[in-house]
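Thread: "does anyone have the structure for this chain?"

Original post by V.I.:
We have the sequence but no experimental structure in hand. Need at least a predicted one for the grant figures.
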Amino acid sequence: MITPIKPKSTLDCAIDAIRAYILDNRLQPGDVLPTETVLAQKLGISRNILREAMRHYRTLGIIDSKPKLGAAIARLVPDNPYAGYLPFFAAGGNSLRELFEIRSSLEAGAAPFLVRSVTPEGLALLRKIHRQMEVEDHEENFSALDRQFHTELLRMMRNRILDGLLPFIIDFFNELRKQKKLRLWKMTPYRETLSEHRAILDALEKRDAELLAEAIGKHNRIYFKLLNLNESFTGKENYDLTEKKPGPDENACRTESNLL
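Reply from O.Q.:
Generated one for you, tokens below.
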């Protein structure tokens, strides 16, 4: 079967031409593009068409404007590709489950790469966050530090694509969990969280991928139960996951906390 060739509009050709210009000249973030007049002449298009084509790359976040310099390359890999889709994704019935499936797969699957890419500086940063969690007595602050721990853990891979997904699978996951008023702190003790983080740190220091994957899997077990993803979870457990006003005992002691 022969597929008919669809004719391209002048705008589409201009978009392709700008992409080719960026690639052929090996432009990198921070590099400045020629002025509108010069670039339009180089590409053989009108300035109006050029502006439309440039708007395409501005929308993607690839091109931005610099004061007194003009258009410049902002980034070549998106730093948060799902940002514009979050409200629509949040409206989906299985959003939290889908997010966790991706996050759990990425964290456990990253173990072999993390033990190869971990540096003394990266490990020191994780230990610093862990020490801050040990003395934190505010629930929301503890949750924020836990989020930072997991973010920095995955950033150690130094993978640009993964870095772009972190706001989605970690930050947005936490926001979505709070919107749905799921109270994970009632299911996992505060000290247990710290113990599981220590196991992750120890496995990283030993550069033991199998031990690290096991530690991460154990740490994520709470979500398997919560989202009914574990085959051993029958759903009969009597967990209260809805928001309630804290009682006096909950305000008086620091024994449990939110997890991310």
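V.I.: this helps a lot. Residues 160-179 form the longest helix (20 residues).
O.Q.: and The chain has two domains: 10-73, 83-252.
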